[in-house]
């Protein structure tokens, strides 16, 4: 059908016929291939293809389905731009008109112990013991490889597998053709097919794993391999012949990775710090966008995007490029052979992810005819009864046609889960625990339904100035510099939460807003277009440019009141009583004496509130201080914050400098519709 045209597909099992209704008038047509694809798996089951979203099942019989094109339209985008005129930017050269631009995935748990003085036999036992601590990340299988290294040293690579694509193959560790290089990796490489074709010998592969290309590419290009990968990853390679160790982490730290030094000089790597605690004399976060080489024993930054320099963020507003780049980012992450879904909070970010998935599946069916794409996308939300997120998520789900599941939890259930959340997330950052608790509870329910992968909306607020405190940015340069700080810290906050809260239950999360192409598209855009200007015709709401890019009256992506809904932090959106209830509980169980002695007990990042002290005490029970002085507590950031700001941004408002006004809830910014007085 054409744009916005109504089409009905009649599945007739007797003669496999197909007719189409154009805006109420029946026009007979014969399309046996399409009808056969529809009829064989579904027989007389009816489907609804909604103009703004996915496909949903209705009662058996005739299918009447409004279909809208999922393809972009410059005409429609220009109409959106006319509704939201392009604001003028004083930075950089004068702006003209808006430009129009016509295998096997494995999320898992890894452990590597390198240059150990233990014998191969003892090292295997040690690795097997510690490997169990990350098994929740990969319940589908385990693997281990132990080798002797030069200099009377040994190495062990262990792997716990969560299979997302082709579950029957691709066990790890993976090996080079000669078997001398071994690889353990947690990740998915979206450009693996292109990289395979660039190899000098593309016939060396032993599996269909998208990650196997890493070890063969490393053999050919060495340390350049990390910069060539498009994906989310954390990996370690050991060269048995030379003893060289090479490790790398993805650009912004979507996948977690820690590193530690053993008492015998060994070097340890693990997806989670708990596999290192008690075995090493120091624990540190492996920095994202870096690789480590045992030859230099140093980290080297390989990810150096131009947007790190504010002077490079001068691109004019290009709404079509933003939208098209985001669509591509979502589409590449649909690589899966197992049931998947989407976290749908009802906020802008997750709602756009869900809407784009629904349209992409419909477009893919029309192009390739895969009946799997006719099945409705599953979406999931969680909140306290009556929470704003549950209401908004249901509205979006109905609009785009997902099979939606909204779960509720009570404040007491959240409090009961806090200890487990702290153990799995390995942090005592307050907002991470606040938001991580409902995500942890939701992930468990989603995994119990047979889902193994979900998409989520993390990263949009850090690249598009979505947090409400950005309203206070004094100018666009300071705003951009804060965005860079926020992206740099994602691996300590939202990426850490999303990765570990889901992987605690063997569920993979993918985050299209943090695709490298999407990062370039958003972060290189002149930050003047991210400033919030209340009352103006444009930029009157945070993340205006993303909203405007998907504002299409002809075939809307989202309900208007959701597309233009004010930012609500996840920990707030699940219901304000959650944070208030957690604080009230902490007031009951933490005495004034407990808080007064916090500086003595917790000299690093001393908690200043009873809520912070409560969370820190639980953290301490799981991860006691390292007797050698560099424990996991030093991997957690600290400092003042308002509504998830960095310490630097606290300077933007004089009132925020008062510690009693510092809280990470968005309600502590006076621009919030329900601001704390």
Task: Describe it.
- This protein is an alpha+beta fold.
- The chain contains 22 helices and 23 strands.
- A six-stranded antiparallel β-sheet has the order 8-9-7-15-14-16, with helices on one face.
- The protein is globular.
- The N terminus and C terminus are likely disordered.
Into which percentage range does the β-strand content fall? 15-25%
Give the number of DSSP strands. Answer: 23
Distance between the termini: 53 Å
Instruction: Compute the average pLDDT.
Output: 85
Q: Supply the helix-strand structural class.
A: alpha+beta
Rounded radius of gyration (Å) = 26 Å
Largest sheet features: 6 strands, antiparallel
- How many separate helices? 22
Estimated helix fraction = 25-40%
Task: Label the overall shape.
Answer: globular
| Low-pLDDT segments | 1-74, 89-102, 672-677
- The strands making up the biggest β-sheet line up spatially as 8-9-7-15-14-16
Q: What structural keywords apply?
A:
six-stranded antiparallel sheet; disordered C terminus; disordered N terminus; 22 helices; single chain; alpha+beta; 677 residues; 33% helix
Short précis:
With 677 residues, the protein is an alpha+beta fold. The protein is built from 22 helices and 23 strands.
Topology (elements, then pairings):
Layout: E1 6-7, E2 18-22, E3 25-29, H1 32-42, E4 46-49, E5 55-58, E6 65-66, H2 74-83, E7 106-116, H3 120-131, E8 141-149, E9 153-163, E10 174-175, E11 181-189, H4 192-198, H5 212-221, H6 225-228, E12 231-239, E13 245-249, E14 258-261, E15 267-270, E16 282-285, E17 290-293, E18 298-301, H7 319-332, E19 340-343, H8 348-368, E20 378-383, H9 388-400, E21 403-408, H10 411-425, H11 430-448, E22 453-455, H12 460-464, H13 476-488, H14 494-503, E23 508-510, H15 516-523, H16 544-549, H17 560-563, H18 570-573, H19 576-589, H20 592-596, H21 598-601, H22 610-622
